[in-house]
Amino acid sequence: MESICLKDFCPWNRWYQPCETRDEPQLDTDGTTQRRYWLQENYVLRIKCTLLLFWAPLNHLAKTAERVFRLFTAYHFTKVKLNKNTLDPKPYPLRSRIQKQASDLLKILVTPILVSALVLSALYGIINPKDGRKLYASTERLFFSKCKMKAIDPLSRKPALTAPCFQPEAKHHALGGDRRNGNNW
User: Phi, psi at residue 28, to the nearest 5°?
Assistant: First the structure.
């Protein structure tokens, strides 16, 4: 995942489209940061932002409910880690357990800020699609890479970004669409 800078949150950007290539997807270049994003039609970006407007709060609500459950059941204090080869219990120090419990509490407290930022950037994406996509991607990178707050991937049920195709130099779509076509899902 790429680094994040203040310019990533600029609400108005100039976009450049380079020459077409056959094997790679077409890319939009952001004039502010020089990062390259998949070229997607504005109407597709608007539809994706509308769906993210509803998906992001539900997704993070589910993850928050799991964290609350872990806090109330003292999950990290009752959990036993096993060695993969021998299935013998391996040490899980009290300090690590407390850190995991505190991390869950902090993530619960930060989730409303994250969801608000994602919803506002999705709303902005409906009005100004390319800049809204950039804001949504930057918000995800900020919270998910720095704070390690992951959402749930609907296909694999593993932690993942909610809109991987919005990221600069994207590698895949959330629902596994053709990587050479930015308008896929």
Answer: -95, 135
Reported pTM: 0.76
120: exposed, middle or buried (Cβ count in 10 Å: 0-12, 13-18, 19+)? middle
pLDDT for res 157: 47
**How many CB atoms lie under 10 A from the CB of residue 151?**
22
The total number of structural domains that make up the chain: 1
Contact, 41 vs 128, CB < 8 A?
Answer: no
For the chain, strand residue ranges (E) read 15-16, 27-30, 36-38, 151-152, 159-160
- Give every residue of the chain whose pLDDT is below 50, as ranges: 154-158
- Mapped onto helix, strand or coil, the DSSP state of residue 75 is helix
Residue 136 carries which DSSP code? H
Contact assessment for residue 171 and residue 27, using Cβ atoms and an 8 Å cutoff? no
Q: How many angstroms separate the Cα of 96 from the Cα of each of 29, 89, 91, 101, 102?
A: 43, 15, 10, 9, 10
What's the pLDDT at 124?
Answer: 93
- Residue 19 falls within a domain, yes or no? no
**Is residue 152 situated within a structural domain?**
yes
